[in-house]
């Protein structure tokens, strides 16, 4: 899963773009945040993918 998320961030970000992977820890929880300035997905596509895998 992580390879897919990070790979897509790199794939869809142009050569002068930026991909940031941050891991934050709060108490016993961890949050992984992947941020890029690539072309992105529309909100509709994100919702469809979320519900239909």
Give a description of the structure.
It is a single chain. This protein is an alpha+beta fold. It has one domain (2-52). 38% of the residues lie in helices and 30% in strands. It has two helices and two strands. The chain has a two-stranded antiparallel ribbon with strand order 1-2. The chain is flat, with a radius of gyration of 13 Å. It starts with a helix and ends with a helix. The model has no long low-confidence stretch (mean pLDDT 85).
Topology diagram in text:
Layout lengths: L1 H10 L7 E8 L2 E8 L6 H10 L1
Antiparallel strand pairs: 1-2
Q: How many discrete domains?
A: 1
Helix content: 25-40%
Number of helices: 2
Count of extended strands = 2
Major β-sheet profile: 2 strands, antiparallel
Structural class: alpha+beta
User: For this entry, what is the oligomeric state of its chains?
Assistant: single chain
Rg is 13 Å
Span between termini: 12 Å
Q: In what order do the strands lie side by side in the largest sheet?
A: 1-2
Could you name the ranges where pLDDT drops below 50 across 5 or more consecutive residues? none
Quote the average pLDDT: 85
What's the order of the H and E elements?
HEEH
Q: Percent of residues in beta strands?
A: 25-35%
Q: What general form does the structure show?
A: flat
């Amino acid at each position: 899963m992580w390879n897919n998320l990070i790979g897509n961030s790199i794939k869809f970000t142009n050569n002068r773009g930026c991909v940031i992977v941050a891991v934050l820890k709060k108490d016993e929880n961890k949050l992984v945040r992947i941020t890029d300035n690539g072309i992105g997905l529309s909100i509709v596509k994100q919702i469809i993918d979320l519900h239909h895998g």
